[in-house]
Amino acid sequence: MPEVQVVERKLAAIFAADVVGYSHLIQLDELGTLRALRASRAIIDRLIAGYRGRIFTTAGDSVLADFASAVDAVECALAVQAAIAEENAQRPEGERLRFRIGVHLGDVIVEGDNLLGDGVNIAARLQTLAEPGGIYVSAAVRDQIGTKLPIAFIDRGGQRLKNMARPLRAFEIVGPGREALAGMIARASLSRRALFGTGAAILVLAVVVAASWWEWSGAPGMGPIASQQVGAPAIPAGSPADQVARSVQAPRQSLVVLPFTNLSNDPEQEYFADGITEDLTIDVSRIAGAVVIARNSAFAYKGQGVDPKKIGRELGVRYVLQGSVRRAGSQIRINAVLIDAETDTQIWAERFDRDIGDLFVVQNEITARIARALQSQLAIAESRRIVAHPDALDYILRGRAQLTKPISPENYNEAIGYFESALELDPQSAEAAAWLANLLAVRALDELTPFPNDDLHRARQLAAHALAAAPNNAMSHYARAQVLRAESRCAEAIPEYEAAIGLDRSRAPAFAHIGWCKFLTGSVDGVIPNFEQAIRLSPHEPGIAPWYGRLGVVHLLQSHLDDAIASLEKARSENARLPFVHAWLAAAYALKGDDNRAHAELAEAQQLNEAYSSVASVKKSNWFAKPEIRALAEATYFVGLRKAGMPEQ
Fold first, then answer.
1. Which DSSP string do the residues of 280-328 spell out, in sequence order?
2. Which of 643, 642, 637, 624 is nearest to 556 (CA)?
3. Is pTM, for the whole model, over 0.90?
4. Contact, 497 vs 510, CB < 8 A?
């Protein structure tokens, strides 16, 4: 009988590192590049051995190693990037090498001392995705790491890798700074890492001292002043360490709304300024996680000169909101300013000019607008603070801050990574679950994920958890509504959006989504006022492009071509990567007789999404499921697409 060949396999964490632009560097300076490579390889070899890894292949500038543990492999990758950065700081600019690293956990074939197979290939492909100095890992590695390391993962979605038949879900590792992060990990593992070398050991020692001071000074009853009383070294005022120490004293998102100043000549307008202050205090207190000083305490400062630092210390808050009201004839102007009380710096300001009309309507609209803006501004300000040990709320705030950026797969993925990290640290967090459910549903709705069914399945579970844990939270109802809308259950979504508005009237997107849900259930009546209200409440909303776009859709279906083009052009100027905006613009321009613009817009839509390849394909959209909407589209949109050059099949 012929001898049966037995293939030896094992599960391993594969580490792949490669120099960025190595061939180009060799051409520029062969000897200098080789010197730098030898120095870098000495560091990498030492660290791989120190983290219990084994190098099994090297080829020029690349290194492949295997580890028994995914945690060891990722720790090693972080330490390598930190040590290489330290090495580069000591070398001339022309001799600095930067590495990309990929880590994958998978089955590999063992051939003597070598390893082969997809497990190795995937790690090598992952490193090509990373930025210089960066690290990419597969979903298998991310699942193994969990909360074992103080890092965050940005979901970069399904990636098409060379010679791979199916997309691979990839994650970028981020944290409070890659070098500082690697130092913290080295500190935590110092007792079992004996091979770091003198230079890296000094770096680790510095991080240990800084981190130890932070932990000690942040302990209950201890602060920078108390610490210095027992002989701790003085911390320079305004230094990063001083900012960290100060942040321990005031709760995150803590705020006082100071009485708005009446600048009008009419003393009777004092009641309006006080009303703005009181309504704002109520609206801002509805922001999840916000700590807002009560009205009576805030009004104790009425008529006094404002010293934000003094007020911040006395009330124990990080932020001070102040403003003024001026009325002249039928016009009213309201100014609002948000100040960081610790640094006395202005971080946001806006002016609102209105015709008085119904004074209460104006008051409600402006306070809701300010509260909506503060939801974003507080998250942005908090995300920029130095935090040595991020907790779940820190990651939630970073995710929310990321969502203030324009809509894109990259920004969505980065925010998802932060919310995932928050849930890993606190699996019971209703807020993290709600934000993540919302974002997964939106990513599917916006056609910006290769895994829409997976995203919706997870979003459904997360929204259910959030609503069960926090039934009186606006974001819980909003997340549930978003999932229902993504599942084409718009009639059920509308009451959830209304519940979210009832709990937080500044939740501008809910108004827009109610309008669109009315559209998808077969009516265009009342749709436009909903979108206009959303835009009034949040004119700088990152997601405003789809609102303008859907306004344009309704105008086009009603044969209001000029209004349709105006709204769709606004949508395109806000975000040029939304396929439906280009398709509807193509139809609108074609119906107006502007063939050149129509052809250009259609080409753009088809490049962004293959669903716009034919009229038959477009008709499959759930937008046209209701006979009333389909009839309007047959008379307008589909006619325009054909005129723009879209084939029937």
1. HHHHHHTSTT-EE--HHHHHTTTTSPP-HHHHHHHHT-SEEEEEEEEEE
2. 637
3. no
4. yes
pLDDT for position 100: 92
Q: Phi/psi at 102 (nearest 5 deg)?
A: -125, 145
Q: What is the pLDDT of residue 179?
A: 38
Tally of CA atoms within 13 A in the half-sphere of 167 that contains its CB:
10
Angle separating helix axes 198-217 and 240-249, nearest 10 degrees: 30
Alpha helix (H) ranges present in 193-236?
A: 198-217, 224-229
Q: In the prediction, which pLDDT does 388 show? A: 65
Q: Which domains does the chain have, with CATH numbers?
A: 8-192 (3.30.70.1230), 254-383 (3.40.50.10610)
* pLDDT attached to residue 31: 81
Cβ neighbour number for residue 116 with a 10 Å cutoff: 14
**Nearest residue to 448 (alpha-carbon basis) of 608, 245, 626:** 608
Nearest Cα neighbor of 324 from 293, 362, 351 is 351
Rg over alpha carbons for the chain, rounded to the nearest Å, is 28
Per-residue pLDDT, 6: 65
Residue at 361: amino acid letter: V
Amino acid at site 430: A
- Residue 158 pLDDT greater than 60, yes or no: yes
Element (H, E) at 256: strand 254-257
3-state secondary structure of 195: coil
Asked if 453 and 487 count as a contact pair (C-beta separation under 8 A), the reply is: no
Residue type, 586: A
The Cα 630–Cα 649 span in angstroms is 18
**Tokens, residue 513:** 């989504």
How many angstroms separate the CA atoms of 498 and 478, rounded? 9
DSSP state letter for 165? S
Query: Cβ distance 462 to 436 under 8 Å?
Result: yes
> Residue 240 pLDDT > 60, yes or no?
no
* Other C-beta atoms lying within 10 Å of the C-beta of residue 86: 17
Q: What is the pLDDT of residue 386?
A: 66
In whole angstroms, what separates CA 128 from the centre of its chain? 23
Q: How many CB atoms lie within 10 A of CB 16?
A: 26
> What is the residue-wise DSSP string for 548-605?
HHHHHHHHHHTT-HHHHHHHHHHHHHH-TT-HHHHHHHHHHHHHHT-HHHHHHHHHHH
Q: How far is CA 307 from CA 286, 293, 297, 540, in A?
A: 26, 16, 15, 29
CA 634 to chain centre: 39
Please state, for a pLDDT cut of 70, what percent of the chain lies above it.
86
Stronger pLDDT, 536 or 587, i.e. the higher one? 587
Q: Residue 224 pLDDT more than 70? A: no
Between CA 414 and CA 463 the distance in angstroms is 20
Q: Considering only CA atoms, which of 485, 644, 624, 481 is closest in space to residue 557?
A: 624
Q: Quick one: DSSP state of residue 167?
A: -
Q: Is the pLDDT of residue 168 over 70?
A: yes
Main-chain dihedrals φ then ψ at residue 161, nearest 5 degrees: -100, 150
Query: Between the CA of residue 225 and those of 233, 312, 528, what are the distances in Å?
Result: 11, 17, 57
Contacting residues for 104 by C-beta, under 8 A, at least 6 apart:
13, 14, 16, 119, 122, 123, 126, 137, 138, 140, 141
Mean pLDDT (the chain, rounded): 81
Q: What is the DSSP string of 104-162?
A: EEEEEEEETTEEESHHHHHHHHHHHHSPTT-EEEEHHHHHHHTTSSS-EEEEEEEE--T
Put residue 162 in one of left, alpha, beta given phi > 0 → left and psi -120 to 50 → alpha: beta
User: 529, 517 in Cβ contact below 8 A?
Assistant: no
